[in-house]
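Lecture notes, continued. The same structure-token format from the folding unit now serves as the input rather than the output. Read the line below as a description of shape only.
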């Protein structure tokens, strides 16, 4: 099968190589998915650069890609939830990524039926950002009706999904974005929009219950100032904390490293009576089915920026790395 592989960690977006590789091996609980579309995430670029080598020690060469929509073409002996011909979508488990390819084997528990109202390219844009928003707002934040949440980078992949989910939960939503994207985030339900080119959110917002950060460490530290005591600061861009190290089963020798990396923000948060959490989202077919129901009910809609052909995977990666996407970028494989 054709795939885009990473042979060495590097800084340029042309590091992925088109290659013919064997079809993935399948376990008893796996299904083989014929990939129709795969979306590109900032996570793909960070993995390519080697920024997650400590957390995710992948063996190279590696097929990148963390989102998929496609059709089941083969099932393992013990698969019970899916059948050949089913249209599905997923964020594969972190140890089994590889959607920039014509086929991928995925555990049946990580898959869900594709939303009926979405095309394959639209569906491929959802899993990673949808699960990230779900786990941040519902699992960690336990966001309640009437609470206030600040979602940074509202026009990005996670931001566009999280704004809609937070509004569905009944929260007041503030977001940061550029002038060009104010209309977009407002249409998604944002109540308060901070144009970061003109205003500093730290000087505008007060007494928020939750902040979802996907930006740099300076933004992370400033976010403490808008939270009230008892508030929750959740970052999907780091730094990782000791709880995360335990969750993913990191060797004990690496856990002090996580403690050091997050010491400054954890200490600053503690002084203000705020909890800090790092989220590296996990695969979950069950949560994707919840998300599917919200999409098919018209409550949440995916926001698409551009669709690239499979042979232009490197160009799609470069486009995402510019950091100016409105929603998601998708690669059409089939």
């Amino acid at each position: 099968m054709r795939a885009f592989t990473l042979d060495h960690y590097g800084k340029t977006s042309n590091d992925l190589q088109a290659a013919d590789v064997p079809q993935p091996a399948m376990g008893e609980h796996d299904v083989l998915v014929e990939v129709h579309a795969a979306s590109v995430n900032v996570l793909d670029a960070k993995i390519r650069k080697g920024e997650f080598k400590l957390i995710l020690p992948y063996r190279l060469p590696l097929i990148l890609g963390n989102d998929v929509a496609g059709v089941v073409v083969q099932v393992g002996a013990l698969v019970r939830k899916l059948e050949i011909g089913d249209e599905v979508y997923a964020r594969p488990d972190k140890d089994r990524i590889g959607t920039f390819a014509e086929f991928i084997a995925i555990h049946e528990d990580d898959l869900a039926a594709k939303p009926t109202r979405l095309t394959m390219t639209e569906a491929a844009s959802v899993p990673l950002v949808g699960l990230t928003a779900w786990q941040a707002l519902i699992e960690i934040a336990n966001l309640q009706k009437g609470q206030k949440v600040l979602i940074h980078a509202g026009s990005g992949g996670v931001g566009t999904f999280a704004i809609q989910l937070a509004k569905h939960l009944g929260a007041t939503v503030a977001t940061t974005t550029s002038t060009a994207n104010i209309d977009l985030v407002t249409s998604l339900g944002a109540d308060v929009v901070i144009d970061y080119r003109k205003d500093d959110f730290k000087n505008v917002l007060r007494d928020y219950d939750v902040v979802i950060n996907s930006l740099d460490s300076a933004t992370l530290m400033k976010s403490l100032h808008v939270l009230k005591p008892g508030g929750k600061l959740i970052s999907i861009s780091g730094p990782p904390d000791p709880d995360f190290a335990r969750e993913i089963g990191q060797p004990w020798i690496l856990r002090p490293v996580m403690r050091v990396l997050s010491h400054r923000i954890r200490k600053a948060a503690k002084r203000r009576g705020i909890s800090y959490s790092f989220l590296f989202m996990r695969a979950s077919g069950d949560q994707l089915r919840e998300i599917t129901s919200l999409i098919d009910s018209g409550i949440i809609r995916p926001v698409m920026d551009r669709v690239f052909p499979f042979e232009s995977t490197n160009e799609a990666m470069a486009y995402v790395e510019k950091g100016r996407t409105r929603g998601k970028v998708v690669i059409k494989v089939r």
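Point for the exam: The chain has two domains: 2-125+303-332, 128-278.
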